[in-house]
Amino acid sequence: MNKFLRLGLLAALACTLLLTMGCPGKRQTTDQVPSDDDRYAGQRLTAEEARAADEITNARVYFEYDKFDLKAESKQVLARKAELLKRYTKIRVSIQGHCDERGTEEYNLALGERRARAAYEFLTMSGVGAGQLEMVSYGKLQPAVQGHNEAAWSKNRRDEFIVLNPR
Question: Which pTM was predicted?
Fold first, then answer.
């Protein structure tokens, strides 16, 4: 058999083996799930952590007009978030304060910060590590609902919780 033909066959066999074996560094264990839709910025979470992260991000905290104090229902939502964050200390969260469209941009940025701080302080007082939390205010820059009425405004006066990369 020709020397070049033999080398070609060996190279083809090696390529076939490499392709069928795959890359060992990219194998996925059954207890880890890739984050859906990049919700968790590409991090790998166990199925249990992913469920906790979903619960943390899905529940928002809402505020009254021109207020940043927490209502009783908001405290219940935050208490549940605190339980999950204390159990899953790898999960880090950005608390994002938002406002409705009324008021100046500067005023709403400050109000959004006070709203985010209210949730931050509740969580830290409940035992969540400060290193798991960060705050940001978007003021009126990112409305959840478009509209110029109370129905829209009430949905825009909120804190959202976004899961960040783990430590």
Answer: 0.73
